[in-house]
Amino acid sequence: MEKRRVVVTGLGLITPLGIGTGKSWDAMIAGKSGIRKITHFEASAFATQVAGEVEGFNPEDYIEPKEIKKMDRFIHFGVAAATMALDDSGLKIDESNAQRTGVIVGSGMGGLPAIEHYHKILLEKGPRRITPFFIPMLIINLAAGQISIKLGAKGPNCSPATACATSSHAIGDAFKIIQRGDADAMIAGGAESCITPMGIGGFNAMKALSTRNDEPERASRPFDKDRDGFVMGEGAGILILEELDKAIRRNARVYAEIVGYGLTGDAYHITSPAPGGEGAVRCMNMALKDAEANPTDVDYINAHGTSTKHGDELETNAIKTVFGDHAYKLAVSSTKSMTGHLLGAAGGVEAVISILSIDKGMAPPTINLDNPDPECDLDYIPHKARRLDAKMSLSNSFGFGGTNACLLFKKLDN
């Protein structure tokens, strides 16, 4: 049976750069940073005091007031970004298509703020003061659950939790569900909000975060010799995927076609990537094979690029292994330099950016790349965005536990 083609018809973004896809994209193209001093909690005792917080978000703009208290902040973000994406797509979910429209939206850590808050309530006031909504607030699948309830999507519904690869797995799995005919449309991506004492403290204990507290906007610096760890961010990135013929039939705007998906495991270490980026190599090759594409077909890579020493070097090495000489002709950038690392939401945000690089003919920059690491010697689009006629873009996501996901997007050609 011939594979069904799948296209992207709607985009929804909430990032530290702005609420809404347009605001986030415009800020990226302008090379702005969304990293600031932490305000979610008193962070003066922490080694890291900076993060990418979403400012000015009001859940009442997207969710009924009585429903808000049933959800933690990551679910608020997921529902809001999904609503934006569906509105952007123009897709109407009703009785005629609800059972063929699904949701795959995941999170890396879920409702950590709720866990911390109600643990404190438990200790101070006892178990009777725990809200009955505590469990639905924090479990990861309630992002997809609440989205499906609000939007009426009755098709396949699940939630990956694969650390930093979560959203990319969600989008890739949704792509395959449509491709094999089990749904006609999918709402896919991820949401995250865990800028909390335990979230920051836990990553500090691993020495994974930047401690450049005196210069928040310069703290996230992928591929730079002076990088000292990643910066945590929060937000959501959601896509609407549809089967091509149905999208054309309703005259939908098509941003790009999703053509390739790779997913692999390193089987190496709980936090460190495999030597040489071997798992990432297999993942990128798998996405290319799935798309029936050649390495030279790819014009832009939105790198995982977290601003960690080994991660950036190994991803660079993996790109060179997969793309050979073409690696030096590719445009590569890490938008985490501006948003920070949104953990489980990172792949969703970066998939949107990879799609917009095709749709708008622009590649966002890697800011703060002042002193390039000699081991990281590709064209990372330093400082300023660049016009780029990209026909195919690759989005990389690599997570703790050695879990890898790669997505390939292509300009639609009928």
Describe the global form. Answer: globular
Q: Would you identify the CATH H-level superfamily of the largest domain?
A: Thiolase/Chalcone synthase
Largest sheet: 11 strands, mixed
Spell out the helices and strands N to C: EEHEEHHEHHHEHEHEHEHEHEHHEEEE
List the total number of helices. 13
Specify the structural class. alpha/beta
> What is the CATH domain class of the largest domain?
Alpha Beta
User: Overall pLDDT, averaged?
Assistant: 98
* Uncertain stretches: none
User: Strand percentage, roughly?
Assistant: 15-25%
The total count of strands amounts to 15
Reported CATH architecture of the largest domain: 3-Layer(aba) Sandwich
* Annotated CATH topology of the largest domain: Peroxisomal Thiolase, Chain A, domain 1
Gyration radius from CA atoms, angstroms? 20 Å
Q: Level of helix content?
A: 25-40%
Q: What number of structural domains do the residues give? A: 2
